[in-house]
Amino acid sequence: MGKSPISLSEKFPQKRAFVTGAGSGLGLTFALALAKDGWSIGLTDINKARLDAAVSAVDSAGGKATGYVFDVADNVKFKSAVDAFSKKNDGIDLGINNAGIGCGGLFDEVSIDTFHKVIETNLMGVANGCHLFVPIMKKQGHGHILNVASAAAFATAPRMSAYSVSKAGVVALSECLKAELAGSNVSVSVLCPSYARTNIGNDSIGAETDKAFSRLLVNEAGLSAEQVVGSAFKGMEEGKLYIVLPNDVRFLWRYKRLMPEQYWRVIKSATDKKVGQLEAKIKSRSSKS
């Protein structure tokens, strides 16, 4: 019988975390879970009102929250916040790069400016965070970085080019860092869930025709934010690089690797079917309103 994994609070008794995109959704759920164990947490969000509410919620849950308002694509402001939090708490044990935006639409319907924004937020935002966390963690001799990607990183499908490219980059970055940091006592994990019930669908950008699809996919998702966060903590405690959920997504991940050509036929057929179902729902709701 194997040993039980060591909890993050046991592994990092100083309990110092920095979470991006923590004003709502997965980021806030991560922060609230850590707050129950008394962590000091740096919270970031681009929306001040949302961030202020999150700071109050984390404090009420038992954490010690400090809020920072900025866009993760802005490396200068990101560095200022990380430096301030690290100085205040004498280091960072857990860095969670969660901030991101959704985007849908056929490739030629998504403007190049929108494509750039998705890459700058979802990929460069994570790169900025890793670039700031790694030196701190290497210097103190320990730490764990969690990069939030998506099943869309490998379950690539039509109408998701910008989003899938950005999340595939997060997976590749995490893999490189895992190898580079081997032996340093700094660990890296990448979280790849399917759709979870958060506000990313409501905040998505891209082609107008796909925004309603995004909202429906997210709002009717089978996974809750709490389930995703619970699996993420378990995976980190077990030292996993890849944290992929739920089971059907893990199957897709393996299926694509083993039979890539067949995968494309299956995913195209499944996407067409799903789009048809969503179009029918949207039309039905429009006719009732």
* String of helices and strands: HEHEHEHEEHEHEEEHEHEHH
The number of domains: 1
Q: Structural class, judged by helices and strands?
A: alpha/beta
The CATH architecture name reads 3-Layer(aba) Sandwich
Task: Explain what this protein looks like in three dimensions.
It is a single chain. This protein is globular. α7 crosses α10. Strands 3-2-1-4-6-7-11 form a seven-stranded parallel β-sheet, with helices on both faces. It has a two-stranded parallel ribbon with strand order 5-9. It has a two-stranded parallel sheet with strand order 8-10. Helix content is 55%, strand content 16%. The protein is α/β, with parallel strands linked by helices and 289 residues long. It has helices at residues 8-11, 25-35, 48-60, 75-89, 112-140, 161-180, 208-219, 225-237, 247-258, 260-288; strands at residues 16-19, 40-45, 64-69, 94-97, 103-104, 143-148, 186-193, 196-197, 205-206, 223-224, 242-245. The protein is built from ten helices and eleven strands. The chain has one domain (12-258): 3-Layer(aba) Sandwich (Rossmann fold), CATH 3.40.50.720.
